[in-house]
Amino acid sequence: MDFTREKYDHLVLQLRNCGYEFITYRQYCEGHLPQRFVILRHDVDLKPSNSRAVALDEKNLGSKAVYYFRAVPESWDEKIIREIAAMGHEIGYHYESLTTCKGDIQKAYNDFNMNLKRLRELVPVSTICMHGSPRSPYDSKDIWKTYNYEELDILGEPYLTTDFSKMLYLTDTGRRWDGYKVSVRDKIEGYQEQWDKVGWSFHSTDDIIRALKEDRLPDQLMITTHPQRWNRFGMKWVSELIMQNVKNIVKGLIVKTRNRHD
Ligand SMILES: [Zn+2]
Predict the structure, then answer these.
(1) Which of 65, 112, 133, 243 has its CA 20 to 30 A from that of 157?
(2) C-alpha 6 to ligand 1 mean position (Å)
């Protein structure tokens, strides 16, 4: 049984046993990095209560993480945002302004600023991370071709400010760990093929746990999950499994239609 909260907890425990220190993305941007560390990143696309449950497990396991919230009702829950921050985790903004503003850069920048301000009224925010919006023709990161987030006291954006020549990126996109093959935007161009070649491509969470036990992973890791996928085993777990299989087929068609790797 994969993509259960029990399995996620097992992964966190294994990381700890293997000597990985847990740092937030803000800490990564600030430098002073431990020899061996993992950034547990969570994109709160929907179902924020799942994120709260994962955050509590992480706290109880002595780890910390970064949670990126979207400025939409299905993600934005002010009580939960505050609660997760109070557990010692980092909160960031999971922006999609260029998509919601249909490619209008000026409008998108205003929208970004407004949402960032609202989030900062709740908790400190130092980093941001784009929401992939696979069905949108717009890549929200493109806003930074015109504007500079550093002027807004933002330290980093995982897709833009991470040194992936040193860090392995794993994501549960598509409810599998090798879903970058069907992902429209959640993948790291230029590195994915190299990682495949050295055997850093995994399908199940157990595959990652096994690689950790055998000490086959590099010292720097970023592991991204979407907590809405991770449920205690039961009906929610079954419905997420079915939904994601349908979505993967649709995404595969989008990637094929575009015939380019973005
Ligand atoms: Zn997202």
Answers:
(1) 243
(2) 23
Give 134 Cα–ligand 1 centroid separation in angstroms. Answer: 9
CA of 223 to the centre of ligand 1 (A): 14
How far does residue 70's CA lie from ligand 1's centre (Å)? 8
Place of tokens 């040193």: 166
Encode burial over 177-216: b for 16+ CB neighbours within 10 A, e otherwise. bbbbbbbbbbbbeeebeebeeeebbbeebeebbebbeeee
Q: Report the amino acid identity of residue 195.
A: W
**131 CA from centroid of ligand 1 (Å):** 4
Q: State the distance from the centre of ligand 1 to the C-alpha of 216, rounded, in angstroms.
A: 29
Evaluate whether 148 touches 141 at the Cβ level (below 8 Å). Answer: no
pLDDT digits (tens, 9 = 90+) for 175-226: 899 988 778 788 888 898 899 999 999 999 999 999 999 999 999 999 999 9
pTM exceeds 0.85, yes or no: yes
Cα distances (angstroms) measured from residue 163 to each of 19, 49, 211 = 21, 32, 22
